[in-house]
Amino acid sequence: MRDVFVSMLAGNDDHARAFDDQFDAVQDGQRPDAVTVTCSDSRVLADHAWGNARPGHLFTVSNIGNRVIQHVDGEAVVSGDVLYPIEHTGTETAVIVGHTGCGAVTATYDALTDGLSEPPGIEYSVGLLVPHLRAGVEALPEELERERAIDHLVEYNVDRQVEFLQNSPDIPESVDVVGVVYDFQDRYDGRRGEVHVVNVDGETDPEVLKAEYPAISDRIERLWVY
């Protein structure tokens, strides 16, 4: 057994000791306040990013590319892991969390420009993003360096995931859908680990969003207004 897993178990000891008495209210069910859809990237601390230490507060979905889409019988539908809390636990806030330097977005960019060769499982996941990012790749300013192009596409991908949820008949109109980018590479103004709001219910203009949500105006920022 590798030492890393032994250290993980030691960390779980600390966790169990701290949270032993915090599951009483949620042992028989859950009603999370929000569902977050984050990238599986190990640098994205999905729950910790929100300061969450309360069982039952957030329903956390994680996959490469922070996707809300899956294919069923050839049709693109809202992924079941995203839809479950909305359909069954009364959750009415969905947050799509992209991140700077996203590997899945990078792979999609490469697939749309130079081609991509990956194992089938990775190709499938990237393939779910390809049709939604194609127009974004085509619209990128030509003078952008590669890493900047990727971060522009990170926002574009968040926008497309928000759009897909909003357009799905499975998502009630009462559900708020917010798109953010988690930055640990100094791309945005702010501290490493901050999330920056780029989309609220389909609105992407930072000035409009700041006027509509003044309480969070300092967290609203985009790299690409297209």
UniProtKB/TrEMBL annotation:
UniProt source species: Halorhabdus tiamatea SARL4B
Protein keywords: Lyase, Metal-binding, Zinc
Gene this chain is encoded by: icfA
Protein name per UniProt: carbonic anhydrase
Pfam family, one: Pro_CA
Binding site for Zn(2+): 39, 99, 102
Family: Belongs to the beta-class carbonic anhydrase family.
Cofactor note: Binds 1 zinc ion per subunit.
EC number: 4.2.1.1
Chemical reaction(s) catalysed: hydrogencarbonate + H(+) = CO2 + H2O
GO BP annotations listed: carbon utilization
Gene Ontology terms for molecular function: carbonate dehydratase activity; zinc ion binding
Main EC class the enzyme belongs to: lyase
Required cofactor(s): Zn(2+)
InterPro entries, alphabetized: Carbonic_anhydrase, Carbonic_anhydrase_CS, Carbonic_anhydrase_sf
